Automatic annotation (TrEMBL), chains A, B:
Pfam family, one: HGTP_anticodon
InterPro entries per record: aa-tRNA-synt_IIb (IPR002314), aa-tRNA-synth_II (IPR006195), aa-tRNA-synth_II/BPL/LPL (IPR045864), Anticodon-bd (IPR004154), Anticodon-bd_dom_sf (IPR036621), Pro-tRNA-ligase_IIa (IPR002316), Pro-tRNA-synth_IIa_bac-type (IPR004500), Pro-tRNA-Synthase_IIa_type1 (IPR023717)
Protein name stated in the entry: proline--tRNA ligase
EC numbers for this chain: 6.1.1.15
Domain Aminoacyl-transfer RNA synthetases class-II family profile: 1-440
NCBIfam families from the UniProt entry: PRK09194.1 (NF006625), proS_fam_II (TIGR00409)
Subunit structure as annotated in this protein's UniProt entry: Homodimer.
Molecular function GO terms recorded: aminoacyl-tRNA deacylase activity; ATP binding; proline-tRNA ligase activity
Species for this entry: Geodia barretti (Barrett's horny sponge)
Length: 543, 543
């Protein structure tokens, strides 16, 4: 088999999935955030893809394959070339025409839908693909969790009205539940408002890893997943500029960041947002850059756990002498201030003045206020990816279809994504122990590790080969370890690769006409009569 | 179904496969040479991929998936970044690191093999992938035949010695024969010398289209396929320069282009090569730029057929007063001269002087000689792609493996490619008639077109739906045309899409408890008892 196992943990791998996939010889790093899949990984990814395909087909999806190369023009028309910034890989062809490597396919598919939807009778549609995406992540990390080139299932629904979109959305959400469950992933589903999507709530599927050491947050768009404790994601940096003196700005009736941003014509990232929480009976003033949102898991962590953490009510905010809609981090007394580290990524922010209808220009952390805790508490995908994506998606409601009376109507579009490699990474995060992966049978690259002890012994070699042939004949996928390696090396590698069932053929077992059978998830081995092994293995896999 | 059929031929499509795929709504053009695959095309491509996978697996292949993004450095080290020129898509990431979009994967895989082959025991290996390639073709054309982004099966064998390479090569060649045959492609296999590959001949699979109107040449590396009659491929242009006076150059013992090029330190593209053929008993003097080779199919075509076309013997050349090894196109009398149009792509060529040990500098077509026929007669893949690729491939024999005694040996690498979309294009070139595609059952997107006439009639709608459910239950793939369209539209579309079998449900048939059954390849329809349809269809597909 192409791919060597490694005994030692690679130094660069922080996440268990990254470490184990490298050690098992499943992935090969080409460049930062760019991997080749070795045969073991590819077999598993293909199984995940097949599960995805079956479930999205069952939800009414039609599979297509769109191009990665796209004219930059598509992205300029949608306005997303700017929004994507450096994340968008750009290039020029030999005739100097600007192209992009698509990070997602709303733009192109909209053109395809325009060309192929002539009437309301052509709707609804759910179109999907499993295709390679390119995003120039600022800090690729975590093996397959955050990469620059990756396979993604991206699906797009097109409906004539909100009721139709709800039906499509529900079908997709159910497909997602089925996919995660079939892949052996435990998820917690969180309803999340996504106003820009047009009133329909979206779901986040939060995955909690076994050991509690890592929390992987996976958003349904597949755009982002992170270790929520360590919490690294790209907050757009802003150019340093000299600190300017604070100025009061009159902002009649302005309460939200969105309103403020529009009224004073400053981007949201030049504002500071105040969000109030109650943690163990106390008000917590959270400051975060206006383009970001608070990740409550992270906030809870930096507060040392904070059971019962919740948003404060407007009354609770007022009780502390704060002006909701224009609360200021400046001049606070006796209120704990937790700042997202984005407050240090920029300067001269717009912030509340703590009096109605006024805000302050040129507010700066350290100079004008000092937070008690500064840490990364931003909700990566809401602030970084999902929200941006959602906004961009909303811009795509430009396609029209004629109804029964020939009147033009907007087509409502929904977007749904799953990163295939990321799903594998998340599954391994949840399914491993200290010795290696413990892969669910549905996605394991093979069903069975067949370990032959002492292959130089002819009896063992023949017996193992015969068993291998028999199991394959019975439709089982078998990884036959026929190397001249010690029992220890073979057992360690079998544990590392983590196939559901391990079979051991040894001279002693052959004499007794038995084979040792062990589930990867169990520490107990049993012996099964050689003639019954195929049947027994099939039963175990089904069970 | 996503994708609309078109009644009229798209103006831009010259090749039948291109025209029919556009008309059937199978492909959507994103940009020049960049397509999205609509559901019908994707279903067919997946079947072709599966056939390829099964055959390459049977040949001992292991599937991987390598990245498209690669550091430019890999290509600078191999020397191919320059050789590829503008065909190589280049880009920079956000940290300004130069990257390429891989047009092929010898470079990267060599690194992966170095990391995973520690000993002769790790060999032989056949590694393959079905993956998206990017090549900035100068003149993309022909639908899926010549594109800038395409799926390719690329396989690479690694062996300890020439005997091993021969075994791998033979296994791959057999896999190719099986793949083409299973896809319904008729190929003619041509042995071709490829010295740079190291003594092992390579095969070309030449596909001849049905009607004789088009000849598609597909080389095993998958790099190139062209309509041999119209024959467009990229001959590297040379800068225009002023015509210089002819000079004699002393070239003692120099006979081949290679020797000439080395001796006078001029690239082969600055030379003119003379090749002699016998066509219908007459000597033909063929002139072609020294970096290109003659395509005998094209030559035969420009000579109006020329049955029995063959290379002339040295004796036949001498009989005409020509000096083999230094024959000149200048001053010929009574000998037909056919020039490849590359003689006009450059100036001041080195050519033969028609006396031993001398050549002429600054030879120019039109000024110094006039060909009787000027046309594209170059063997695209030998001159343009294959030969370059082969040369580059040879540079990859830099990986070493230690043998039994720990001595380092070179690993011999073989490269084998098939363009998946191009294979589909070629199959359609061979399998169509004036009404549309006639797809082989093995790769058709569905088995059956189920045409219901007058869907507004409830009896018809119910009957057709029942038959659809029954056929699907029997494991058949059915495209159910349940649109409210006329019989004519439905029949035309069924012919256009070209599924192997068409079933017609009509009120009259329902009264007789029969279904009309027709093979796409036949003009005869028959009626089959409704209860027997599934069995009958399966028998027809198998037969």
């Amino acid at each position: 088999m192409f791919g060597k196992t490694q005994r030692n943990d690679p130094a660069e791998a922080e996440l268990a999935s990254h470490r184990l996939m490298l050690r098992a010889g499943m992935i090969y790093q080409v460049s930062a955030g760019v991997y080749s899949y070795m045969p073991l990984a590819l077999r598993t990814l293909r199984k995940i893809e097949q599960i995805i395909r079956e479930e999205i087909d069952a939800a009414g999806g039609q599979e297509v394959m769109m191009s990665a190369l796209q004219p930059l023009e598509f992205w300029e028309q949608s306005g997303r070339s700017e929004a994507m910034g450096n994340e968008l890989f750009r290039l020029h062809d030999r005739r100097d025409r600007p192209l992009v490597l698509a990070p997602t396919h709303e733009e192109l598919l909209t053109y395809m839908v325009k060309a192929n939807v002539n009437s309301y009778r052509d709707l609804p549609l759910i179109i999907y693909q499993i295709q390679t995406k390119f995003r120039d992540e600022p800090r690729p990390r975590g093996g397959l969790i955050r990469v620059r080139e990756f396979d993604m299932k991206d699906a797009y629904s097109f409906d004539v009205d909100q009721d139709g979109l709800d039906v499509s959305y529900d079908a997709m959400a159910q497909a997602y539940r089925n996919i995660f469950s079939r892949c052996g992933l435990e998820t917690i589903e969180v309803e999340a408002d996504s106003g820009a999507i047009g009133g329909k709530d979206s779901s986040e599927f939060i995955l909690i890893a076994d050991a509690g050491e890592d929390t992987i947050v996976l958003c349904p768009s597949g755009d982002y997943a992170a270790n929520a404790e360590k919490a690294v994601f790209a907050k757009p940096q802003q150019d340093a500029e000299p600190l300017l003196p604070i100025e009061e700005a009159h902002t009649p009736g302005i309460k939200t960041i969105d309103e403020l941003s529009k009224y004073l014509k400053e981007p949201a990232r030049k504002t500071l947002k105040a969000v109030f929480y109650m943690a163990m009976g106390e008000l917590v003033f959270v400051v975060i850059r206006g383009d970001l949102e608070v990740n409550e898991v992270k906030l809870s962590n930096v507060l040392g756990g904070a059971p019962g953490l919740r948003l404060a009510s407007p009354e609770e905010v007022q009780e502390h002498g704060l002006t909701a809609g224009s609360a200021s981090p400046i001049g606070l007394n006796g209120i704990k201030v937790v700042a997202d580290d984005s407050v240090d990524m920029g300067s001269n922010f717009l912030a509340g003045a703590n009096k109605p209808d006024y805000h302050l220009r040129n507010t700066n952390h350290h100079r004008d206020f000092e937070a008690d805790i500064v840490d990364d508490i931003a909700l990566a995908q809401r602030g970084d990816s999902c929200e941006n994506w959602a906004r961009a998606t909303a811009m795509f409601w430009i396609a029209h279809y004629p109804d029964e009376n020939g009147e033009p109507h907007l087509i409502l579009m929904g977007c749904y994504g799953i990163g295939v490699g990321r799903l594998l990474g998340a599954t391994i995060e949840q399914n491993h122990d200290e010795n290696g992966m413990v892969l669910p049978a549905t996605i394991a690259p093979y069903d069975v590790s067949l370990v032959a002890l002492n292959m130089q012994n002819e009896t063992v070699a023949e017996s193992a080969q015969a068993l291998y042939d028999e199991l394959r004949g019975a439709g089982l996928e078998v990884l036959f370890d026929d190397r001249n390696e010690s029992a220890g090396v073979k057992f360690n590698d079998a544990d590392l690769i983590g196939l559901p069932i391990r079979l051991v053929v040894s001279l002693r077992n052959i004499r007794d006409s038995v084979v040792e059978v062990k589930r990867r998830s169990s520490s107990e081995a049993e012996t099964v009569a050689t003639t019954d092994v195929a049947t027994e293995v099939k039963a175990m896999l089904a069970g």
